[in-house]
Amino acid sequence: MDNDKTLFSSLKEVLDTFKLCLSENKEVYLEHYVAGWRGLVKFLNCLGSVFGFISKDAVNKIKILVTHMEGENGSQYVTVQSMVKYELDNELVDLTKRGIHPESGCRTLLRLHRALRWLELFLERLRTSNEDGKTSVMCSESYNESLAQHHPWMVRKAAGMAFCVLPGRPAFFEVMNVGPPEQVVAMLGEALPLISDVYQITEEFYAQHNMLDLP
Ligand code: 1Q0
């Protein structure tokens, strides 16, 4: 996957993947969740090598989840809900401090889940911004409201520096390859409620199981 240099054709396709995440009874399919993140990482890679440390971490987390999904207990890793139940029932999660399960599916997914909140906040700002809106400001505000609260000082600092070199809104819209700005805004308006649903459902499920602070 590290060597996957194929460019995605449009951000719409990536965001559409998140639509596929929800089953009829509101479970979150890991396969599509992971596919969505893969697509986002490709997008991130298009923005330049300063984001390499972010994309590396995301790729690493995706790989951990895929290893579980393709492993001998893969049938337990179909949805977020089945994964959580399986890992909790079999004591495969470090609940209070880091221990013998540093790569549990639950703690790994939680990191991506928190990043999904950043994505939701960022895309919402992008959607409602005007032509001269600053992507670096939108990005850091969204980060401060979400992921930053879980990151140590060094990571926050490095992230802040990377945000400064984000391209402006017009260049961003272009890389998204969705069409003219009105179309981007419309696409975001359609995609965001679904991303938000996936986020909320995961959040509530993790909360019910007291797992929002996994080490
Ligand atoms: C567009 C700019 C992208 C900015 C992404 C914001 C996220 C910043 C995160 C910085 C984290 C970096 C490195 C490592 C962090 C880990 O310590 C942390 C915790 O893990 P652990 O194992 O140490 O407990 N990891 C995380 O918090 C996971 C972070 C995953 C970030 C995944 C970001 C993938 C980004 C996709 C970009 C999508 C852009 C789409 C926008 C489209 C709009 C045009």
How would the blueprint of this fold be written?
Layout: H1 11-19, H2 30-46, H3 52-70, H4 80-89, H5 105-128, H6 135-145, H7 153-164, H8 169-176, H9 181-208
The structure holds ligand 1Q0.
Residues 11, 40-41, 43-44, 47, 51, 53-54, 57-58, 111, 115, 118, 126, 139, 143, 147, 155, 159, 172, 176 line the site of ligand 1Q0.
Protein name: Ceramide-1-phosphate transfer protein
InterPro entries: GLTP_sf, Glycolipid_transfer_prot_dom
GO molecular function: ceramide 1-phosphate binding; ceramide 1-phosphate transfer activity
Give the class-level CATH name.
Mainly Alpha
CATH topology: Glycolipid transfer protein, GLTP
Structural domain tally? 1
Q: Could you estimate the helical fraction of the residues in percent?
A: 55-70%
SS element count, helices: 9
Present as ligands are: ligand 1Q0
Termini separation:
26 Å
Do you know the CATH architecture? Orthogonal Bundle
Mean pLDDT value: 94
